Structure formats: C-alpha cells, structure tokens
Amino acid sequence: MMSEGFDCDVVVVGVGAAGLVAAARAARSGARVIALEKNRRPGVKILMSGGTRCNVTNARGLRGLDVVSGPVDPAFSPAARQGARAIVKAFEPKGAFLAKALRAFDVDATVAHFEALGVALKVEANGKIFPVSDRATDVLDALMLDLERSGATLRPNSPALGIRPILDSTGFAVEVPGGEVRARRVVLTVGGESYPGCGTTGDGYEFARRLGHAVVEPRPALAPLRVAADWVGELKGLSVIDAIARVRSTEGVVLEEQREAVLFTHWGLSGPAILDVSRGARVGGARPTLELDLLPAQGRDLLEQQIQARARQGRPAIPTLIPLAIPRRLAEKLVSLARIPPGRAGPELTREERGRLAEVIKRLVLPILGDLGFAKAEVTAGGVALDQVNPATLESKIARGLYLAGEILDLDGPIGGYNFQAAWSTGWLAGLSAANPGITPGATS
Prior knowledge:
By secondary structure, the protein is of the alpha+beta class. It contains 13 helices and 18 strands. The chain folds into 2 domains: 8-220 and 375-443, 3-Layer(bba) Sandwich (FAD/NAD(P)-binding domain); 224-371, no CATH class.
C-alpha cells in the first residue's frame, strides 16, 4: 500500500520502446504505475523503424529457433546463433553493461513475448527479425494492449517538465503541465535526440544532470551520409542490395566496415550498410572517405575477365558489360567515372579502360561531407554515463529510486534490431526493479 501523498509507486517518464515495456512490467509486478508521454500517441519511433516494418531484434541473439512461429530464411545459418553473447558483442566496448539486462530478458524471451502478444515473427536472411505482417503498427498495437491490460495508467500529452526529489520523503515529484505527479520511484525512458520530430529532443539529459548524473556528449548514430559527389543525387531511389561500405581515415585506416544494402538518395547515401558505418564519419578532425565495393561477391580479377568475355560478344554498349546486380543507371555513371568515352562499344574497350571500370566497381571512393545529424539518425550515441548506473537493477548510483533504460543511456549498437533489443531488455529490467526495490533480478541466472 502506498504512503499518503504519493500518486503512484512508479512513474515512467517517456513511453517509447523501453517505456512501454517498463511500465507494463512494473504494473504486472504489483506496482501502481503512471506512464507519462509527451505525445498524443506513444511509440512514434517504433512506427518509423525498419522502413515501417520494425526490426524487433536479431536472431544471432537466439539460443534456438523454436520460439519463432513465422518463416526462417534458409540463408540464415543456425551456426550464426550465439545467444546473449551476440548482443553483448554488438555493443562492445560497452556490451558488458547489457549482460544482466539480457539475463533478465534475452532475445528468446523477447520473441516469445511478442508471439504471446499475437505478433508472429520471422527471421530474414541477414538475421533480422520482423513481424510476419511487415507492419510496425502490429508491434506498437501489441505493446499498447499489453500496457492497457497490465493496469498501468497512461497519460498522453503529458510532457515531464522537471524531476526533483521530495526532500521530506523517499520519492520524486515529476512536474507536468498544470501540476505534478508524486511517486516513490521514477523510470526515465525518454530516449535520446534522434528523430526529434518524434518528441525525442534530449529532455532526459537535463533531468539526469539536475539529479547529479554525468552525460557523455550525445551525437548522431546510424545516420545517412552526405558525400561530395553531385551525381549521387541524380540516382535517388536506386539501391544495391549487396555492397560493402568502408570508412577510411585520411591515413588509410579502416574505421568502420559493413556488408549490406546501399541506397542512393537526393541528399547522399543511406541504407543499412551506410547507417552502420556512419559513426566512423565523426572520428577525428579530418573528414574520412567512403569506399564502396558494389560487387563484393566477385574478386576483381574475375570481374575483369567477365567484362572482357562479354565485350567480345557482338558490339555491346559498355554499361551492359557490368553485372545486372548493379542497376543500369548506376552502371552508366560508373562507366563515366572510369573515364571511358561515350559511345564506345565492347570490342573497343582497352585493357586499361577495363581495369579502370573494374576498379570503380570494386572501389568507388566518395569524400564524406558529413551526416544528416539527429534529424535523420536512427539512434543517439552518448547519454547518461554507465558507471553511474547499476547494471543489475538499472537503478542510479547517484539518485536512489531513479531507474534508467533505453536510449537515454550511453549505449548504442549497430543496425539490425540490436538497439531495440537493448530497449526491450533494459526496459523490462528497469520496470521489474522499480516495482521490487532491493531485489536484483538482473543478477539471477
């Protein structure tokens, strides 16, 4: 039973991915919960994620596949499954902080949870797990239904304006428009600064600072890149399904590398491979360069041989000598970048020109101008310093009774469902811990 003067046991501030799970878990654990959301509707970023499909988690973190009811792409190898180790590794060098949250709620538990909520899931070739329906709305609807059934009270259009300890009692007062909510404990899940149009405008960092926390400088992560090549915008809408993107320093050191799809846009380059390597674009003072291998499945020597063989079959146009995995308009641009005169036919292609064409296909170099910042970044790097948070409970070591979960923490991983898994796991552990203070659920095996 609550002490007099408190509106609830636990107030969850910010009802995104982590907040939805935290609020429902705390309520199901017996706490009286109020969830405050600044938007009219919670979980807006969930709807935008994964191209509106919502990449729920990654199958590399599974221990088995029996919890997945939908199809498993044959290209995804069971040998790729590593359990929680795969998630921890993806967040290195900070992955160890996640280990206890994953012990409380791992990938198998996540998949089983969504399946129990009526969201059938499938595993795609790259290990990404999506709803069978390919609809992010199904994920959000299920989480909203779970929140409602848990007994938690949702208050939309209720932005937190400040959080202060109640000096004469163990608890907090959360200022909201027109008043305040008084609670014994607070779970702070307001997210970072990525996609500020969704309401994630960095409010939580100031709350945390005022409560004594250090905040590692927030910066965009998983963001599209702008490049110094005007022709890229002319190819907007084109994609190369299988490519390797590398970011190299001015000294030639590979800072980031990823093999995935690349998408051409009117502002530059996007797609999973680009988003993953984008963090390398902010390393050091000098601007690094982006390298694209547009045919990673083929070695350069074999590619040159294929181009030569096709060139001898009649009088084909040079762009048609390039494998079909590369879209025609991009192939035409690559021919131009290889400095091959227009109108040249296959038999007229010199050995030197053939070499230049293979080089630009296997190593297309584009100077990086920058990224699109928080406005288009999928996640935020930086946040509340991890050494000030107990990983076994996610309670603050600075302000007792304050729990932190999700993107507000200095914890970001690669594309592929890893960041959502961190949100589900930390949200679950924070909600459970806030409802049961003094117990360390993340420390159990």
